[in-house]
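just leaving the lab so this will be short. what follows is a protein written twice so to speak, once as letters and once as structure tokens for the fold. can you read through it and tell me how you think this chain folds. thanks a lot i owe you, the record is right below.

___
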Amino acid sequence: MQNAMPGLNRLETSHTLMLREYLSKYPRENCDYTITNLISWGEIYDNHFLLYKERLVIFNPQYQYVYFPVGEYLTPLELKDMVTCFQKYYPEAKMILIPKEYIDQYPGLLDYFDINEDRDWADYIYSIEEMVEMRGKKLAKKKNLISQFRRAYPNYKVMKITEDRLPVIMSFTHKWRRDRDAEGAYLMTELQAIENTLKHWDHLPVQGIIICLNNKIVAYSIFSPQTLDMATVHFEKYDPYKKGSAQVVTWETARYLSDNYKWVNREQDIGLPGLRHAKMSYAPDRMAPFFGSMLKADSTPATEPEKPE
């Protein structure tokens, strides 16, 4: 990256330990903060990082996004100074992923930034217990499709993704795209992110399961830790010709995660109507909102508000 600001370094798999140390101490619910996404998608967007006042700051140079720092909260004035530093080298730099808790605790943030909420990039968070039990009318259709699949294919197997099965996963992913005749910029970027995840499998805190039928894969999911009690599902693909396979892989993933986690983050719908409908149909418990910001041109109040107790 040309003309990079001092201290800005490309984020690579060698930094996974650093990411784990920061994110385990200062966990976030937004899936953008998982190690897997930071590396797999970050390789596509050329993500960099900066240690600013002992806080970890991720930077996406393609869109000039400055992630809200990971660490003890900085004051609004310190955040303003940080973004101003970035703008010296990247004039369109803007801060994203501001925690709602921070906005509520520090109203002085509005002295420096215009804040906007983007529904398209909010994360869907579900109770794993509800995903396993499938109780209630809202999930009755899902439960019925799972039952139909189990009756039609009583011998299906659930297997862990291991290194020797990674080529099969990638081949199945390309087959999934062909079967659905799916194209588009986002899809092709997602395919690259899947390839990156599989390429770095041994360096990421990532796991997955395969739904196998007669020694052939019919679905898979890939997931990783988000917080102590939440996992994030990054990718899920299924055979569209096997009725119920989509619901079964979601259900089996929840069952697999249920021993260690209470919540599952199924990421965003990025504003796609079909994807939004699919995610809403599982009755999310809540959303992890996405707040972005633009630095105000004249943003210096008379006094800097104190940190809340």
